[in-house]
Specification:
Helix content: over 70%
Shape: elongated
Oligomer: single chain
Order of helices and strands: EEHEEHHHHHHHHHHHHHHHH
CATH superfamily of the largest domain: Type II secretion system (T2SS), domain F
CATH topology of the largest domain: Receptor-associated Protein
Length: about 400
């Protein structure tokens, strides 16, 4: 068998590397996942290549909503006493998404081959993340798979609702700002040059605001393609930032420190952290492992670094409250409630209560943000469009005044 070398991270986040014999890269990848090792690179005989992702193999993505429905249906079938393989076969056959269908059929085939459900799901990390597979493993070990699937369904449904609420709240301001930019750009590109030619023909002295608008119009006329290039390049720029750890950390920190949006993002981060960790602890996942999974699925580099520091402090024998307070990311109320939960042995229920509270806070904060942004956006639109129109008519008013005098 060929020899492969690999590098990656284990379940605790520590870097690992090694050398293994395997029939092919897929066999080695499956073996590493069973050992909870996430491989970053695999190299065979000097040829390095990236691990293939499920999304590329299946030809598409799986909506989170479909995953939530799957967990809900799966839990009902398991609770009704249907065999695991039969459940996967039925659910896989009923999927409209071909990518998800291929995932479930592959999972079923792996389970039929003698693997556990958790290890079978680890072969598809783009669909079933670490949180899912660790909860499934805890459910299989404790014989409460149906309960775990219900908790997973509830968790994913709440995450979908939270994401949808934030996305719908941002549609209005983004739309208004986009329309305002298009209107101002059209005025500067097509309308202002007509007036500029008129003023040049008359040979009148132009006020400062008019000269500024004409200069801006000349800039837009010459560099009108620049915003188009920026819009096209923006996804690639963001991808580069997200793939560069230092830039990613700086970008996430900047977002959290924004005046209005930063407060909303902090509440979203707290809601996601408490919901995820609470769900994992309730499902029987140890708190050290739960913090590792929560950090990786936090979606924010600042929060991820803070949670990894908290995990390290707990490994050194400290309680969870002090390192949470020291990281400076979480509000005092959150750390105090977590401390009460830790002292009373009800950490999971306390985290769930915090998550419920902050999810409601996110709804209220997004509404307040829209209430604050609406007059600001209307004012921006009025000042920008009105300012251009007034600056264009100022020379005409001056001419009319001279003629009247």
């Amino acid at each position: 068998m060929p020899v492969f070398t690999f590098t990656g991270t284990d379940a605790s986040g520590a870097a690992v590397k090694g050398e293994r014999n395997a029939e092919n890269k897929d066999v080695l990848k499956a073996a590493l996942r069973r050992e909870r090792i996430t491989a970053d690179k695999i190299k065979e005989k000097g040829k390095e290549f990236a691990l293939p992702t499920f999304g590329k193999k299946g030809g598409g993505k799986v909506p989170v909503k479909d995953v939530a429905i799957f967990f809900r249906q799966f839990s009902v079938m398991i609770d009704a006493g249907l065999p695991l393989v039969q459940c996967l076969e039925i659910l896989g056959g009923n999927q409209e998404n071909p990518t998800f269908m291929a995932c479930l059929n592959g999972t079923r085939a792996t389970v039929e081959g003698g693997s556990t459900l958790a290890n079978a799901m680890r072969n598809y990390p783009n669909v079933f993340d670490d949180l899912t597979t660790n909860m499934i493993e805890a459910g299989e070990t404790g014989g409460i798979l149906d309960v775990i699937l219900q908790r997973l369904a509830t968790y994913v449904e709440k995450a979908v609702r939270l994401k949808a609420a934030v996305k719908s709240a941002m549609i209005y301001p983004v739309s208004v700002i986009g329309i305002a930019v298009l209107v101002v750009g059209a005025l500067l590109k097509f309308v202002v040059p007509i007036f500029a030619n008129l003023f040049l023909g008359l040979g009148v002295e132009l006020p400062l605001p008019t000269r500024c608008v004409m200069g801006l119009s000349a800039f837009v006329g010459k560099w009108y393609w620049l915003p188009i290039v920026i819009v096209i390049a923006l996804p690639y720029i963001m991808k580069y930032i997200r793939n560069t750890p230092k830039l990613n950390y700086m970008f996430d920190k900047m977002l959290l420190n924004l005046p209005v949006l930063g407060m909303v993002l902090r509440k979203i981060a707290v809601a996601r952290f408490t919901r995820t960790l609470g769900t994992l602890i309730t499902s029987g996942v140890p708190i050290i492992e739960g913090l590792t999974i929560t950090a990786r699925t936090s979606g924010n580099a600042v929060l991820e670094e803070a949670l990894l520091k908290v995990r390290k402090a707990i490994e050194e024998g400290r309680t969870i409250v002090d390192p949470l307070r020291e990281c400076g990311v979480f509000p005092n109320m959150v750390t105090q409630m977590i401390g009460v939960g830790e002292a009373t042995g009800a950490m999971d229920s306390m985290l769930s209560k915090i998550a419920d509270f902050y999810e409601e806070e996110v709804d209220a904060a997004t509404k307040d943000m829209l209430t604050l942004l609406e007059p600001m956006m209307i004012g921006f639109l009025g000042v920008s469009v009105g300012g251009i129109v007034i600056s264009l008519y100022m020379p005409l008013f001056a001419m009319i005044g001279k003629l009247a005098g």
